[in-house]
Amino acid sequence: MALTHTHPPSCSVPHDVHREGLPLIHGEGLSRAFGEGKEPVAAVSDLTFGINEGKITAIIGESGSGKSTLLRLIYGLLEPDSGAVRYRGWRVPTPREKLIPGHDAMRMVSQGFDDLNTYANVWDNVASQLPNTDLDSKYGKTTETLQRLRIDHLAKQRIADLSGGEKQRVAISRALVNEPEVLLLDEPFNQVDASFREALQEDIRGIVEKTGLTVVLVSHDPAEVLSMADELIVLKQGRLVASAKPTLLYRFPPNAYTARLLAKSNIFSAADAGTLGINSRVALAVHPEWLELNARPEAGFMVQDVRFKGFYEELLVSNGTLRVIAINPQPGAFPMGTRVDVKVRQYHPLR
Ligand SMILES: Nc1ncnc2c1ncn2[C@@H]1O[C@H](COP(=O)(O)OP(=O)(O)OP(=O)(O)O)[C@@H](O)[C@H]1O
Q: What is the pTM of this model?
C-alpha cells in the first residue's frame, strides 16, 4: 500500500499543494473549540503529530482530553478552527469541502452500534457496504472479511440477537469490507470483557500485519492498549503531552501525567524523594512495581489499604504525610496495619 500520489487523489481539496516527506497522517497546529459565546471550550489545542503507515496508533488520555475530537478531525468529520490534517501529503477535506464528510481512504467505527441495521442479518449488514456491480466480488469480499473477523459462522444471525462483542466485530467488518487504508476506532474495547478484548486485539493485529492496514484507535484505558499499540499519542486537556512507543513511554514517561496514566505511578517531589532516601533535585516517577516493602515493627510506614487484584495486591502505604502505592506480588504477606520500610528499587526523574 505504499502509494505516492503525484496527482491529487479523488478525495482532495481544490488548489491544494502536495507536501513531501510527511508521515501517512500528519496534523499541524490543529485546534478546535466547542460552544458559542464568550468562553468556548477548547477540545484540542495546537496539536502537531504524525501517524505512520501500517502501524497501530492509540490516542490516550483522561476523559474529556480531546481524543474523540482528534479522531473526528483526522477523518474529516469536524471543521478545525485552525491547522490541518494531511493524508499522504494531501489535505483531508473538511465537512465544508466535502459533500459526504469523511476521507475516502478511511473508515471509522464509532462508539455504540448506530450504523448497524438491527433487524438485518450479519451478512447483509456487511455486504450492503459494497456495490452490486460485481456480485462475485461482493460475495468473495464479504466472505473473506467475515472470516478475518471470525464471525462467518454468524452470517445468518440478526444483529439484535448478538452479544456486544459480536456486534463490535460486525461493525469492524462493515468498515473493513471496502478495504480502507486506514481504520479509525473510537473506544473499540469499551464494554467488552478482557478475554474478548484480547482476542479482538489479536485479530486486528493480524489484519494489520497481513494487509498493511493503518489503525488509529482511541482509548480511555491505556492498560488495555499497551500491548497492542505500536505508537501512543497522549492528550491532556486537548494538548499533546507525549508521543512514542508504549515501552518507551512506560519506562521513561516525560511528565507526571503520562506516568500516572500509563503506570499509576507515584509522583514524589524532591523532598518526598529525600524521605525515601533518594537525593534528587527534581520530582521522580516511581511505578508501584518499582517499590519494595519489608516488614519491620519499628518501620515508619504502615499498610493502610490492601486491594486484591488476583495474583497480586495493590497496597496503599503511608507514613502520615507521604502516601505510596506499591505492588505486592505475594498476596497476604502484608496485612493492613503492618509496619513496613519502603525501598525504591527504580525511579525515573521528571524534568
Ligand atoms: N459536540 C460538542 N459540543 C460541545 N462540546 C463538545 C463537543 N464534543 C466535544 N466537546 C467537548 O470537548 C472536550 C473534549 O471532548 P472529547 O469527546 O473529544 O474528549 P474525549 O477525550 O474523547 O473524552 P471521553 O474519553 O470522555 O470520550 C470535552 O470538554 C467535551 O465536553
A: 0.92
